From TrEMBL:
Its EC number is 1.17.99.6. GO terms for biological process: tRNA queuosine(34) biosynthetic process. Catalyzes the conversion of epoxyqueuosine (oQ) to queuosine (Q), which is a hypermodified base found in the wobble positions of tRNA(Asp), tRNA(Asn), tRNA(His) and tRNA(Tyr). This is Epoxyqueuosine reductase QueH. The keyword Protease does not apply. [4Fe-4S] cluster binds at C9, C10, C84, C87. It comes from Thermodesulforhabdus norvegica.
């Protein structure tokens, strides 16, 4: 049994990884740090949904409520096609540092659950963050439980977002170019 810090991007994506980690006997504490989520009301809504999910599932949470929007935009502007690298790195390095500082055995992330994320990039960034912080990274491909986790989220009635989080992903999700 290991003590694992689970970086959580949102409530819906937390159900299945939490279930899997607990089935394996791990002690799990969630960590919410997501400065990529825009606009702020979306950030607040996702945090609230995660807190509802955590309360209903007896998951202790560590929450970073700081919202460094300016840092995110500065680091992504003019590099929009590579924004995910920055997005994953800032969050997973924070998780690795916290896990090391707080004497966890390892850290992992709910980002490994989503079928819509860049799975191999997430794994690579997390492994680099682990090496840099000198902490173990727990890898599991949680995508196999996609349908199970989605059903759990639907049944819970919590907010389920429609885009990854950043303003560029919101545009890609909702804005359709006009055909001329």
């Amino acid at each position: 049994m290991a003590r694992i810090l689970l970086h959580t991007c949102c409530g819906p994506c937390t159900f299945y990884p939490l279930m899997r980690l607990r089935e394996q006997g791990h002690e799990v504490i969630g960590f919410f740090y997501n400065p990529n989520i825009h606009p702020y009301m979306e950030f607040a809504r996702r945090l609230e949904a995660l807190q509802e999910m955590a309360s209903a599932n007896d998951l202790r949470l560590i929450v970073r409520e700081d919202y460094p929007l300016e840092d995110f935009i500065r680091n992504v502007a003019f590099r929009e096609q590579n924004r995910c690298i920055y997005c994953y790195t800032v969050r997973l390095e924070a998780a690795a540092r916290l896990a090391k500082k707080s004497k966890f055995d390892a850290f992992t992330t709910t980002l490994l659950y989503s079928k819509r994320q860049k799975h191999d990039l997430i794994r690579s960034v997390a492994e680099s963050a682990a090496k840099k912080a000198r902490i173990s990274f727990y890898y599991e491909d949680f995508r196999e439980g996609w349908k199970i986790g989605q059903q759990m989220a639907i049944e819970s009635g919590i907010y389920r977002q429609q885009y990854c989080g950043c303003i560029w992903s919101e545009k890609e999700r909702f804005y359709k170019k006009r055909r001329h």
